[in-house]
Every structure is written in structure tokens, then in C-alpha cells.
Amino acid sequence: MSEENRLFADINSIERAAANGLPFCDTDEKTQIMRGVIHLIQKSLKELDGTGILTADRDLLTLAGPDLIIFYVYFDQTGSHMKKVTEPASASLTALSHFIGEKSAAAVLDKAGGLEAAGNISFFGIKKRIAEKSEEIKACYERLCEYTSLTADQLIERLLSEERIIPADQITDQEEQREEADTSEIALIGDQDQRELMKNTAMRLRAGEHVVFYDIKNLLHRLGALKGLPSEIKGSPQIVEDQDGQLSLFTDKDRPAACPEADLLYDAIMEIEQRAWQESLSGEISYGRALNRYFDDVRIESYIADPLEEYTPGSAQDMALAHDRYREQLRWNGEEELYTELELPLVFVLYDMERTGIYMDAIRLKKYGQQLLSHMEELEKKIYSEAGGEFNINSPKQLGEVLFDRLHLPSGKKTKTGYSTSQKVLSELAGDYPIVADVLSYRKYAKLKSTYADGLFSCVNADGRVHTTFQQTVTATGRLSSTAPNLQNIPIRLELGKQIRKVFLPASDALFLDADYSQIELRVLADMSGDKNLIEAYRSDRDIHTATASAVFHVSTDQVTPEMRRSAKAVNFGIVYGISSFGLGENLSISRKQAQEYINDYFKAYPRLHEFLDSLVTSAKENGFAVTKYGRRRPIPELSDPSYMKRQFGERVAMNAPIQGSAADIIKIAMLNVYSRLRREGLSSKLLLSVHDELLIEAKQSEREEAERILKEEMENAASLQVPLLVDLKEGNDWYSAH
Questions:
Q1: Whole-number Å distance between alpha carbons of 62 and 56
Q2: Which one of 48, 297, 501, 642 has the fewest CB atoms closer than 10 angstroms to its CB?
């Protein structure tokens, strides 16, 4: 290295960032990544003209300038990256970011104008956090300012004395006797280093040491793919007509090369999970707390702390600080138990469900697609006849011209690209114009064919089963969602849409058990509001929609007509979502005045509800968030938005989030309890799916009665409410007949 160019390396920060980038994080034990570091040194020297520091510590970005180049290293799931920084980062922003996150820090400083006034900003949960950490923030800021006051030479001398950095040539000298480093551009940390990290992490786990992860479930799937598990390997399915729907999967070319270290880490994680399970059987510690002795998942922690902003670690140090910050925040917010007792153990429940998957009959799926195509072809002919000629039904431009220029239908709204043919526009016309109703039906069948009849084939794995992914950290209310494929979005209103469930079958020696909560959100509303009339209606096992219709329409229950009950049902569920008279009027096709009368009569029938819902809005405005029965918080920034429409939306969220979020928590509790009980009693029956308020089990024929009892008991006893929790339980030889 020449005298003109001096490069120093911050080894510790790079090691920690590399450990985080896999994305599992070993923050206590240094990982040997010298080959990768040498590559970084060689790469940065090519761009260096003067003095530089190679680091993954964002604090050192405040030192960048014309006399000191910072080569900032960071890692993510796409690989490793290095950025040359010549402009200093803000000391205020850097100091505050350690304690409230970079995005929140930037927003606070932008509004406050500086660090001194930051503690006066009332962002959600932030003012208190800044106050609690004011001394630490100040000390960090002063340290960074002290560094920035030094010349480059003084700073290097200071960092050397603190053993923060070492000369880069020392590193290369130490490695001269080793095998020449791989300096290819494909990775800063070579494959061998990743394997070493996996091996070291597995050793730590097996020694009973604690490890911080980011997204454990995703990591298990990635390791499972490296391990070559059939459930992780996507197939190229072809139907074999003579094997009763079996799939032929050509996957050999897709199987990854063997990776013993991935096997080692995967097995170590699952062994520790089994150890935690065994510890929980003693009764002295819960399954979740036993898991938490060995694991933490920062993605889950951050989601509970703030479900509106997804945290992505920028470095190992950042992640370690975030873990400490989020756990402290969960303690402040009273959400720590939600994390340790529910969300963390649920990671392994969901992983088991995803790994198990659900069998799909290819022959049935093919016939279903043909059935949809037949309906589409019939509708095509009918639409062409009604339109007076053929056109591309899937083209909004051509459809708009046919409907509004050729046929002169009313309400045509022309945009820059042509007439709008949105769902809303067409729905308003469908009742009066058969061609519009037929177009809407055609769209439904086309959607079913592309999404399910065609799309499901690409989702089959080498084991012949479909393995959805349950998203645990997406919705703001705590509800689970499902992707690749989305099995929570199976149509239920259109009969032909519902029939897609017929392609999903249990194993040959099993059947499906399907349990669906009965009106869980209304039951939660009754419990949380304490309304005596609503509670009594549920305790008496009366039909709640009939009881509501009787009260709203002022008739006896035996005089309630199906139309009255349908209207009362719309009011019942609408109230949960903070529906307005305008929205209810739209749903029921009645005047706004009539809809408001229904709402007024509803609140007369259940007088405590109005006061309760108002209190939810008031509380959310005061605190900036809504809270569920189990302490889960949902920030509502819209309540302080200058836009009237957004504030109205925020008020509806404030009314709905505690109800929907509490129901979501109850369903998660039920999932955990059903899974645990099946496992504890030694049954081979498996929990397969969670679809909103519904749980699906694949039960061995010999275990049917036991599995049925467990499913019903654990779901109905998942929460202690002032009203009974009831489930509708069915069984069948396919998902359709079981639902």
C-alpha cells in the first residue's frame, strides 16, 4: 500500500453486518470472513485517492469528507454491496436513528427543525421514547460531533487508539500464507464464508446460546430449499391421466447442489424448537417463552411495535440495536406477552402448516378449467349478440366504445384513454342492461380461470402439494394473509367460484375437518362494549340478525321477513366497520335518510354500542393508536391528517381495528392451541390452513373423533368472553364438501 493511499478497516462492524446479511444474525461471536474482507480492501483501493475507512458502521458516515473517504458496506438478501461516501451524514439524524429508527428520526427532525426540539414532537409512541432515552441520544450526538471536529489524521489516530479500526495492510499481511482470496465480483462474502457462518450459528444453537434472527420462517424455507426438501422445490407439473389426478413433476434439474452447512443449521433450529416444546410439556414454562430462551425474531418484534412501517436491517449493529429498542418498546406498550406467548411460537405453527401444504387433484383442476372456459365461451356468444358484433371483451377501450358509443348506455365517463369500464361503473348499470351483467360475469369467470384453473399449476411443489405462504407481518390489524397462492381469497359468493375447493383433497387415509367461527367480530363487539342487550341475545342463542331486525323494524321475531333479516345483517356487520348512512344506503339500495333511521334504531336497540364506539375514536385521537383486547396497537396517523376524508377514514379504523384485531388475535390463539394439542396428544392429524375465521385440518380417519373434539374445544375456548364463542364444524372428502 502506498504512502499516498491509506486504507483502514473496521473489521468488527463488517463481521456483524455479514452475519446479519444471510439474514440470521450472530451478534456475539465473530465470524471468520477474511476472504470477503480482502476482496473489499482490493475493491476499495481501486477507488481510493487519499485516506479511507472500510466500515459497516453507519456512525462513521458522519466523518466522510474530501480528506476522508468512507467505504460503507452493507448486506441484504440479494448479496453484498459497497458504497463510496464523500459527504458527511447528519450527526443529529444518525444519533436519533439508533433509538427510533431512521425513517422516524428523519420525520421527527424535519418537523422539529433540530435535535433539541425533537422531544416535543408527538408522533406515535415517539415522544415518550425520546424522553426516556434523551441522555443516551445526547451522549451519542456529542460523541459524533467530537469526532467530526477532528482532522482526518487526528481522527484516524483516535480510532486506532480505541481499536475501532486497523490498517488494511495488516489484514492482507496476515492472510498472505492462506489460500489466495477469491476476488470475483459475485459476492463480497464468498460461499465458503456463508457456509462457515451457518455452521457456527448451528453450533451456538446446539450449545443453548441465544441467537437473534430476522424472519425465522423465511430462513427455514431458504435452508429447506438448500437441503433439498420436496416441499421447497417447485415442480413442472404435467397431468398423468391414468393415475387419478396424480402429478408428474420434472424437478431434478431444479434441485440445488448439496449444502451440508444448510442441513446443519436447519436441523439445529428444528432441534431447538423440539427442545423448547419438550420444556413446555413440564408445565413450568410456556412453549413461547421456552422458544424465546433460544430465539428472537426482529421482524416480528418490529411488526408488533409498529405494524405500519416494515423494518429492514441495514447492518448487524443496526439490527442488534433495533432488537433492544423494539423489546423495550414492547415492554412499554404492554405488548411483550403478545410477542412471546403468541406471535413468536406462531412462527413455527405457520412454518409447519406451510411445509405440510395441501394436496391438489390435477384432473379435477383441468376439468374445472374446462368448465370455466365453457361458461366464458357461452357468455362471449351472448355478449356479441347483444352488442351486434364481435369485439375484444378484455379491452376496456373496445368495451367502452361498444357500451357508450354503439349502444348509448348512460353514465359513460370518458377519460384520456377512453370510457371507464371499472367494476363500479358497470355495477351501476348491470341491473338495467343484460349485456353489462354478462360482461361482469365473464370477468368473474376469466379471473377464476387465470388465477386458479391456470395459476395453481405453477404453485405445485415436488411433493404434489400446494404450499401457500402465510404472511404474519403484513396487515395492520394482526390478521394473517396468504400468498403464492392466496388461499384466503377463494371465492365464496359465486357457486362456480366456490367449486375450486373441490380440487383440494386430503390424503387417501384422511378427511378434512373445517371449523368456522360464527360471527366472531360481532361477539367480540358484544364483549368489549358490554352492551347488555347484545350480550343477552348471544347468551340466549338467538339469531342475532333476526333479533336486530325485530328491534330495527319494530316487529316481533316471527314477523321478520328474509328481506328484513338481510337488511339487519348489513347493519350488524356495517356497524363493526363504522359504516355511514351513505354506505349503508348504497349496500341496501335505500335512501340515505332511511339508512340513517336504521342506524338510529340499531343504537336504540343496543344503547351501549354508540357510547363504546365513540370512546374508541376519542381514545385513538388522544393516543394516536387503537388497541385490541389483547393489547395489540394499531397506529392511526390519519386522525391528525388535515384532509377531512382521511380523518373520517381514521375514525372508521379507530372503531374497527380493536374489534377486527381482537378477533384476529383470538384466531391466532386458537391456531396455536389446536396445533399444540394435536401434537401433545400424539396425533398425526395436521393443521393445514387458516382462512380468516376458518381453520382446516387434515385428519386421519382413525383420529377423526379426537381431532374433531380438539378443533371444536380449542377454538371455542380460545378466549373468555361475556358471550359464547361458537364454531360451525363440518367434514368432507374435499375442501368444498367440508366447508
A1: 13
A2: 642
